[in-house]
Protein: GTPase Der
Amino acid sequence: MLPVIALVGRPNVGKSTLFNRLTRTRDALVADFPGLTRDRQYGIGKLGPQRYVVVDTGGISGGDGVAALMERQVQQAIDEADHLLFLLDARDGVTAGDLDIAASLRRTGKLLTPVVNKIDHLAEALAAAEFHSLGLGDPWLIAATEGRGVAALMEHVCTLLPEAAEAAAEDQARVRIAVVGRPNAGKSTLINRILGEERVVAYDSPGTTRDSVSIPFDVGEHRYTLIDTAGVRRRAKVADAVEKFSIIKTLQAIEACHVALLVLDARLGIGEQDATLAGHIVEAGRALVVAVNKWDGLDAEQRQRVKNDYQRRLGFLDFAAVHRISALHGSGVGLLLETADAAYANATRELPTPVLTRLLEDAVQAHQPPLVRGRRIKLRYAHQGGRNPPIIVIHGNQTEALPAAYRRYLVNRFRSALDLAGTPLRLELRSGENPYAGRRNRLTPRQARKRQRLKDFVRRKR
Structure:
């Protein structure tokens, strides 16, 4: 396995900025105020002589509620790390919080490197002097925003890491499952239930999750990456800049995933925002599994109302499997990964051209396309044009005039015959070019003489 480096420290010392610098991504949200990061964020380090896993953590500040849950996440990151980078703020100097964290980290016995960030526009000698009082050795001076000193830091850290064995599998081989839904629908609780541990902060307050957190895990021979996302509210209710960035990260997670797990809150019912979010998933062409959470405790009337609302608002998700679950108690959760695997397999299945062409011929024979300007639309053959989502390309003539109703008819015929449950299906219609378009027919000498006789005859009759 790859060695693990955890970034720890007080809030707003630059841990997420350094994480983005080391992974050469923008996976971690960055803003100039404390407490933005709450969950552990994992990434593959690409700066330095060897590969490693880098973990971004929330700031250690003390307190209860969400702060206490954040610190539990930090402790778990420390326990699984091979090396700790203790980030400090050169502008703030050594604070009481830094002294407490230093004492706590010293007791872990882990390899530890103090890193003084934000040294831009400061004299290095003066910036480093105060931090020797922590008793952790010589601090490394960096400016994570500019990248100054970061490469040298990682050269040093990699010499202290254990030998990195070749990774068992690349991230591309994992099935990426994005858990999306409205705020407080139970997404983080569901992920913790699937993993069997308190991996992400789950709190009974909307907006607890701010960043999109990727969590790799294995179940037997199956490899997954769960992506916990921020809840998406209606645009009119979004005023906080951080929440706007969180929504962008959620939409990016939908684009990047293989399967979307849409979590609905049964107690709040199916809302307009649920339909909008489902529309984003369908437009992205992602395989889909729907989990109706908080189903326990509802009476028969409430359950029937949820079913009716689902048919009315989310009827266009007829291809997706629906599971009624309780993330808190675990009922129904065990089937979600199995359904996600089936949906992903259907989304990436190979569809042979002879089979598609035969299904197209059967569909046309059962129900002919309409006439356009007195001419019948002809659909000649079909083949696969892409995967995830499956794309079926149909060739014919006048296909641009094919009505939307007939397209839906073809989609339903293909989906039913191929058993493509769990994934949207797209059609691409292509018309062949007429080789004689724009060309005048040249008459033979005999045809020209016949035409002239006909014109003479008409002239004499007049």
Observations:
- The radius of gyration is 30 Å.
- Confidence is low (pLDDT under 50) at residues 31-35, 164-170, 202-210, 235-245.
